[in-house]
Design a protein that fits this description.
Blueprint: H1 2-23, H2 33-52, H3 63-86
Helix pairs in contact: 1-2, 1-3, 2-3
Length: about 90
């Protein structure tokens, strides 16, 4: 039960990051109320990655991709640990 809940939360957070990335392609989408809410949820996680990974060619930000990969690896590891603990 706990493992499934964590998996679901990670999946939701993954999609929030994807939506936030796609919103950067639309003019003023991040400045909308919806964009601001997602930004408040996603930016604290993305900020450390942006600090260490500079944009490519000055404008292409690959830090969200690295953040998503790190999120997936961390979630997989956490689910494996919790599965071993609870079974």
């Amino acid at each position: 039960m706990v493992v499934q809940a964590i998996g679901a939360l990670v999946e939701i957070y993954y999609w929030l990051i994807i939506i936030y990335i796609l919103m950067s392609w639309l003019p003023n989408a991040r400045e909308s109320k919806f964009g601001e809410i997602i930004g408040k949820i996603v930016e604290p996680y993305l900020a450390p990655f942006r600090r260490f990974i500079p944009p490519i060619f000055g404008m292409i930000d690959i830090s969200p991709i690295i953040a998503i990969i790190a999120l997936r690896y961390a979630a997989t590891g956490l689910v494996a640990i919790l599965t071993n603990i609870f079974t």
